[in-house]
Amino acid sequence: MSTDKLPGYDVPRVEAWISENVEGLTPPFKWTRLEGGHSNLTCRLDDSHGKTAVIRRPPEGQLLPKAHDMSREWSLIFGLQNTDVPVPEAYGFCEDPEITGAWFYVMGWREGHAMYSQADVEKWVPEELRLTMCHSFIDVLAALHSVDPDEVGLGDLGKRDSYVGRQLKTWYRSWTSSVEKAEYDDPRVHEMREYMLAHLPEQGPARIVHGDYSLHNVLVGADGHLSAVLDWEISTLGDPLADLAYAINGFRDAGSSIPARKTVTSMPGFPTKGEMAERYAEKTGADISRIDYYYGFNHWKSAAILHGVYARYRAGNKSSEGVDLEQMKENIARRTQQAEEVFARL
Length: 346
Hints:
Number of helices: 10
Helix content: 40-55%
Low-confidence stretches: 63-67
Largest sheet: 5 strands, antiparallel
CATH topology of the largest domain: Aminoglycoside 3'-phosphotransferase, Chain: A, domain 2
Structural class: alpha+beta
Strand content: 5-15%
CATH architecture of the largest domain: Alpha-Beta Complex
């Protein structure tokens, strides 16, 4: 890609900064825009000696205060360098917005592919490697939750107490404030919130939670094992079981009466949600006897997130061109129904 078509990057100044601050990378680079990554501007850099790196910065324009937090991502990648969590090499972080208009960081390149769709799985992960991929996926999450944040300089990543309680407060506020614009409410959402507050699990030691750990936020190598975990911008300290439930909630639920949707994890070769949870417990020694609570919480939270997005579309705050609003409304109801079914098991 021509460097004069790269939004957000003053290429000469960035290359000069890398030359002065990053060992082992030699400009000029071949710049290649990479897709994905929550709209952050991400490029592959190939230097004149055949070494490859990745550069990442927020999108251009006015951002919400905590959105696209490059410093948080960098601190996670840097802090996890010498752990069993596969992260790219941490090359350098620039917090001088004069260089290219925003903070940015440079990290190593890892070979692999993110699994956004069934087509990605069919292309990159043959059926005989899918169980390997899923085991690696859960083993890496277990490794992350086994890291003591204080020992890797991440003890101040976030609050340590009542992760689920704080999430309930945030997303219930989102639901109630969106009802009028969405012209849609569901009494079950309020009832389940009361149930969750009354039965809030006692949180163990706070651990690093990714917050969006999924097969589209990791890279899978040719051998089926994870080569890197990406997109750390909403990571914090919290309850690892909530992180686990989020990560595997989309896998097939052998005990559910709700028909499975055609998703990545419904493909042949993928284990069930219960099998993934058992493997996590074996790796960490965690007590997963109350895992259904966390499954229900994550379905409820997903319904609240979708409800907020739906409300913004209905209010005209976001362009709904090409968006199936009826399908989105059905998805809110589906998530609510899934949460209700899980809590009924309790």
